[in-house]
């Protein structure tokens, strides 16, 4: 049974989406991580998780001190909200000329307001996109996800040629910095050196024919695929 986001409060939609994102990032969705991501008190998170676990059907499986996982129904509800969010991001950048560091905050506001019909028409207008401006996969109408790259740049061997396919960050400052470097999805890059002391990487941008230095945070956020 799939629960439409329209039947859930905005707060519940946000919780489900954050739990999904944290699970995908690795490390599990602990109360502390959820509280940090949503900027709320840990006690508020615990209270909400208990409510989500006690719903019928339950949206999460929650054991105190062991974190939380989405149930099948919770995962589908999260993916529906994520689909709307990423379609809106693509719309804002593709048709309204927003920059990629501006779209996330705007989509956070709009994702709760659109109807299933608007979502369907928006997807048709955009040509059923498979990825958003950051390279994040957009669930299709059946909530199936397209295959997405999963290797952070920090795991790539020196000398290997790869293509940037995703940036896992919504931080506007980080995205603006990458934009200044010219580092976006679709770009061919090669790691030329690694400095273990400060964990920086020298990266050759093939298309621009220039070298940049990326710190550990960017090495984790920039996702790549082999070519």
Structure description:
The chain has 227 residues and is an alpha+beta fold. It folds into two domains: 1-146, Arc Repressor Mutant, subunit A; 151-226, SH3 type barrels (Roll), CATH 2.30.30.90. It is built from eight helices and eight strands. The protein has a six-stranded antiparallel beta sheet. Strands 1-2 form a two-stranded antiparallel ribbon. β5 (188-195) and β6 (200-205) form a beta hairpin. α1 (10-25) packs across α2 (31-38), α4 (72-94) packs across α5 and α4 crosses α6 (116-126). The radius of gyration is 19 Å and the shape is globular. The protein starts with 9 loop residues before the first helix and ends with a strand. The mean pLDDT is 94.
């Amino acid at each position: 049974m799939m629960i439409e986001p329209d039947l859930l409060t905005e707060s519940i939609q946000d919780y489900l989406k954050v739990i999904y994102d944290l699970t995908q990032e690795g490390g599990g969705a602990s109360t502390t991580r959820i509280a940090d991501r949503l900027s709320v008190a840990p006690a508020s998170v615990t209270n909400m998780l208990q409510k989500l676990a006690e719903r019928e059907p339950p949206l999460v499986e929650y054991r105190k001190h062991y974190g939380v996982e989405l149930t099948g129904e919770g995962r589908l509800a999260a993916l529906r909200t994520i689909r709307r969010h990423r379609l809106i991001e693509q719309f804002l950048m593709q048709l309204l000329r927003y920059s990629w560091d501006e779209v996330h905050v705007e989509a956070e506001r709009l994702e709760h307001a659109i109807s299933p019909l608007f979502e369907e028409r928006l997807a048709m207008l955009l040509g059923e996109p498979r990825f958003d401006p950051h390279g994040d996969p957009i669930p299709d109408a059946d909530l199936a996800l397209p295959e997405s790259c999963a290797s952070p740049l920090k795991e790539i061997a020196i000398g290997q040629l790869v293509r940037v396919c995703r940036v896992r960050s919504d931080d506007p400052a980080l995205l603006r910095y990458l934009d200044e470097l010219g580092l976006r999805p679709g770009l061919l890059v090669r790691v030329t050196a690694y400095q273990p002391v400060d964990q920086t990487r020298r990266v050759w941008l093939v298309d621009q024919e220039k070298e940049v230095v990326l710190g550990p945070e960017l090495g984790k956020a920039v996702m790549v695929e082999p070519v």
